[in-house]
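Sample entry follows:

:::
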Amino acid sequence: MRPSPTRRTVLTATAASAAALTATGTAEAAPASADRPPATAQRPTRELRALLREIDAARIEATVRRLVSFGTRHTLSVQDDPDRGIGAARDWLLAELNSCAAASGGRMRAELQSYVQEPAPRIPTATKITNVVATLRGSVTPERVYVVSGHYDSRVTDVMDATSDAPGADDDASGVAVVLELARVMAKRRPASTIVFAAVAGEEQGLFGSAYLAQQLKAAGTDVQGMFTNDIVGSATADDGTRDPYTIRLFTEGVPSSETPEQAALRRSVGGENDSATRQLARFVRDVADNDATGMRVRVIYRRDRYLRGGDHIPFLERGYPAARFTEPAEDFAHQHQNVRVDDTGKQYGDLPEFCDFPFTARVAKVNAAALWTLAQAPGTPKNPRIITSNLTNSTSLTWARGPEPDLAGYEVVWRETTSPEWTHVLPVGDATTHEVDLSKDNVFFGVRAVNRSGLRSPVAFPSPQS
């Protein structure tokens, strides 16, 4: 184990320095910049690169076009027609996920998850809402779960119009296509932890399907350590024609939606507004997916979602799960929530597949795959991290609970200036559950992450004060 840095070494080496702190054999420092990854970045493994190479833009395109072919997938549309409506889309999705499961050697199971939604805003009569879900059970720590979703319902200008053609190619056949492609590629592999692939319904009517899925997981006491929704990930072209085909936005809340008054008081006391579990999940995505293996830049947005919009990650956030939303870099609103039509200037409206960029969506799938696969193979986020505050001192003592993983190698303490968005220093501390750093807890933010014998790191856990 390397010794901890001293206050002297840290005070003479700012977080902007790219050099390692080597005077005492101490912590590595690799501050993030436009052309340098964060100190916590993880290079893709050979296994991950092989997985990413299997993601196929042509398959993603075929999925989008097949979903569009059902005419409308409105939540209130017909459910018993084999060719049109949300019921036909539901049955096709189940068949596709069953096909993926058939290649899994019994590790994946696909199912319909249904309930009856009583009348509510945008639901005029009792309506059956069905999620299509496939679960790939982990082989080592199956109790730890990660979820990826897209919503398969669609809409036009009038959110209550359940009969007009609502192709929903970008919003959100593109996200469902990402989910199906991930299920296909991962079903043949053995993740250490469990991954849930979900095509949810009822999003446009009020996030009903994802709320039901999140509540079912919560009621079962499921340890969901990360959730991603892919919603509107089909195009890299903005409404003015500009393109940004190598960027994906990741929306991540700071102050937790599930925060209690007591938790809020604690957060305010330590300044943890930028250190929710969701923000740590977002940093992890950048660490593992913003690189040459995906060919993408992950633009983390410090917001829960866009103005006037919401997505299927929100019900997970409301139940205390870390969750974030992937969305294309700049939207063209002529191709979302619009009736299919051509106006008197010749402008085409409607969410049609010809306005999608399928190689872009395949790269978004690679970002998802890099994050999910690394999460599933790495140790879980450390539990019960604490920063000891019983005495006035200029050093910092940290504690945490040891994880259950059989291949756990140890832990790393990370820190950054309070004004920095990224972790800038990493200190290996070995297979321990406590460590003292000769730095003042008043001046920097600390975190802890786990490492396994393959060198994979968990997301960072942000410590709470313990007197």
Residues 140 and 406 are 8 Å apart (CA to CA). The two ends are 27 Å apart (CA to CA). The longest helix spans residues 358-377. The mean pLDDT is 93.
